[in-house]
Amino acid sequence: MQVDILDGLIVALDLLFRRTDGKKYNKRLMVITDAAAKIADAGDLESIVMMIQNMEVKLQVIGLDFQHTKMKAEEGKPVDEEIPEMIVKDEPMTASAGDSERIKAENEKMLVSIANEVGGEVCSVSKRMQLLAQGMKKTVALTTKFRGSLEFGDTFGIPVYCYLKTKTATLPTLSKESQNSYEKETGGKVKLDRRYTSPQNIDEEVPPDEQVKAYRYGAEKVPFASADMEFFKFRTEKSLKALGFLDRAQINHAKFVANTDIFIAEPGKPHAATCFAALVDAMVELDQVIVARFVPRKNAAPKIVSLIPHAPSSGKGDNYYALWAQQLPYEEDMRNYEFAPLKTRKYTPSEEQQLLADKLVDSLSIRDDKADEVGACFNPVIRRFFHAVSKRALDESAGVPALPAYMESSLKMDPGRQEKISTLIESFGDAFQLKEAVKKAKDKKKKSFWSDVPTASVKEEDIKEENEDAVGRDAGSDLELDLDLDDLLDSGDVTTVGSMNPIADFEVLVESFQSKASRRERLTAAVTGMETHIERFLSQNGSEFFPKALQCLSHFRKRSPEIQYSAQFNEFLTKLKSVLSENSDAWKAIKDAGISLLTSSEDPSVDVSPAEARAFLHGEEEVDLNLIAASLSSQVEEMEKEDDMFADFE
């Protein structure tokens, strides 16, 4: 379609003005054209330039088959060599050029002059495609992470803004889609649905009001309700408080945690900027850093950070005052590993080996490389992922594309340097005789722990060199002793009844085959632990623990006659009734479950009749006369049996 370029610019600027009038926007106008259409009125050129300048629009012209994208600078005006796309030069046309070529050339020069006047850029399609092929990182909006004051004491603070400077880029999460919905031509994303079931009955779903979170404490699980979780939250206020200054050499860069933040003086406050700059200059001069307590938002976890000063320099670095924030680890964040020592006589290298190591380090050093040769390095995983997605969007059968050559080279050693030092690398390997360690078949079955590294890395014959007699015998005995710590830890030695699975713990203690005195001790621990957990489950607020308590109580009642504990069980149930009270929800749950006293029909050692057991559970007024009659008949039968037994003695 043949369209006047200037008319198109006027329409686009008018739309931009209507959309952004009175609002803060970053305005950008992109023109993609071959500049082949004739311009009707060139008098609008000056007004277009004024509109672009007044509206602060960034102009970008992408030309199709452009031959004129550069123009010589005027005399006395230097050319900015850092932005080659904005350098404009005049290329004369050949005499044989036709009218269409002449119009195209004039339009190209006009667009270049407009871009040069308003600070825009002109580039060809091929150039833009090359830039796109090289990959670009995602543009992130300038968003503050923290707005507040860098506080020194209780009375002084410097207003600062905090931004996130570095963060590990990750792949986007893949959304789950149902293939069946596409086949049926009905849209619908896959929704995640969780069901919680009872451990005793996997078909029984646990409703949300009966679910509770718990934290493990040793063998126990400590439950926390939602109200408890809110109560135990660590309450903090948003702040950045300086704790003190420290020599920069005392900061261990190897122990930094998480991402890097940057603090600058609050924009629009010149006094804050002056104070902030003076502080940074003083820290640079004294080589100091600030150790501060940082809470980025209300009720967030407090962090201890080191604020490292950054001042403008004469080089090509960032030309502003800032404080780089690096999080310091707490003691819980540190991993205390044990490794084999290297400062021993055995591991001391010879002079020849040390000389080869020095040469290898010097030959691989990049300190003499030019800074201009070091460019941006893109993440190959992310680059390959988005490249594959774009290919698959156009062709469903497209395979995974290979990495571009420029990205492959940035992740490898320079071929020229590698060829240059190949001989040195071979000499280095020959000097140390590096070989792959051969593991014994026996060692494959054993599990390794960090505490075993210092002893496992020293061979038996190496120990004999220092102490052949005593240490050699100890090493031999250690090799013959094949104990596994996991087997000792997983032996299942239960000493108390836990709240996570009290019935299983109770059975382990009851069924233990040990001496008579030890068995009585473990039996007492089992009974006491079961009583304690039943009473605790029933005494807590809410009914989420009632089912577990009833299971424990029912199992305890069933096992009491077998362990000769029937009388004590009846005493415990009587005590439990008085503690809970008859009108409580817990006792009503016991009544609904029908868990009552043990009777003489279940264990002859107790003198509780079935009628008395029912009266204990439901009250005197609910006792059925039939049950009383049955109880009396059973008592008569027992008396007759006793008479028959005494008759045999006569």
UniProtKB/TrEMBL annotation:
Instruction: List the SUPFAM superfamilies hit by this protein, alphabetically.
Output: C-terminal domain of Ku80, SPOC domain-like, vWA-like
Cite the Ku domain residue spans from the record: 203-345
Q: Which GO terms describe its biological process?
A: DNA recombination; double-strand break repair via nonhomologous end joining; telomere maintenance
Keyword terms of this UniProt record: ATP-binding, DNA damage, DNA recombination, DNA repair, DNA-binding, Helicase, Hydrolase, Nucleotide-binding, Nucleus
Major site of localization recorded for this protein: nucleus
Q: Where in the cell is it found?
A: Nucleus
GO CC, alphabetical = Ku70:Ku80 complex
So which domain of life are we looking at? Answer: Eukaryota
What's a single GO MF annotation on this record? damaged DNA binding
Instruction: Read off the Gene3D superfamilies from this record.
Output: 1.10.1600.10, 2.40.290.10, Ku, C-terminal domain, von Willebrand factor, type A domain
Record-stated family: Belongs to the ku80 family.
Q: What is this protein called?
A: Ku domain-containing protein
